[in-house]
Amino acid sequence: MEISNNKVVSLTYTLKLDHAEGELVEKVDKTEPLVFIYGAGMMLPKFEENLTNKVVGDGFEFTLGSTDAYGDYQLDMVVNLPLDIFKVDGKVDYEMLKEGSMLPMMDNQGNHLQGKVLGVENDTVRMDFNHPMSGKTLHFTGEIVGVREATEEELSHGHIHGDGCDH
User: Which of 10, 20, 58, 67 might form a disulfide with 33, Cβ 3.0–4.6 angstroms?
Assistant: First the structure.
């Protein structure tokens, strides 16, 4: 069965920065493969495009530039926020605000964001809301280990069932 829309794809992969010999970012093996519904918007469009029509046992290797991956690094996504918004019960938890900490946050429209603490100065916290992989070139190698039809329930929910999914 070939990979196409509404197929459940299982794959292994190695992600490195820049090229095949680049810094290792992540490795996913057959014990816990990446499983997703192809065409459901769960994955980067160009990632999926590189898997189109592949079958179980096929290998893959491709590189995505930042514009096809998580976008370019944007300086306007680095902001200073008032220290007061980090108070809980009137106190600031400075352990939570350590440089490099990732914090779940919400913008004025209710969108959930992940922010990285860059530093704390006086009454402000400098946060970076760029995706950690923005501005990076990503090199993937891997193998297709499973392809099947998605169930109607999976398609209606937009995600795979099983493997810890309780609905």
Answer: 10
